[in-house]
Specification:
189 residues; alpha+beta; three-stranded mixed β-sheet; globular; signal
Length: 189
Amino acid sequence: MARPLCSLLFLLSTGLLLADDWSADDDTFDPTLQSVVIGDRSWIGDPSPFVHVESSRTGYTYVNATNYSGLDPAVQLSLMVPLKAGESQPPGGGMLMLNGDQTRAFIKAITDAIELKPGETKEGVQIKTALEGAQWSLAAANDNDTRVVHLENKLKEKSHRYRFSVNASKKLIGAIKHSLKKLEATAEE
């Protein structure tokens, strides 16, 4: 009995969080989490949930600072939509690569969108990214009188829209700010 209990305590202390302890409604980012188990899947870090509008599936984010060869150091925001059994391609998903200035502009766009009151509208904004040809936009929207944030990726063949609650948007801002600090610290070295 002591060995399984010690193993569980070790897993929890190393940053693994079980779904019972993780909440989709939480609005704060916890940088100490290495992964969480939601349903039958494990997700990296402390993800923000979103709905991939076209498939009505819940997906999760992963945010980290990157320094890939041939690209400026960037904050990478991955939007991951899970596969269903038998599928070989996810219904959606995407990635934004944002340099420091683009990251700060993205944070401002999300903040402005969530600070609007339900019913208020504001023109959506284009999101500039480090990936040439990527067409992303962000807009505040209402879903049953509740404020939501839509992040949209326009591709040649179709568009993908990702709907974030206000709380998920706040958690995402926390993750992006955390990665931006890492990016800035690396640049100072």
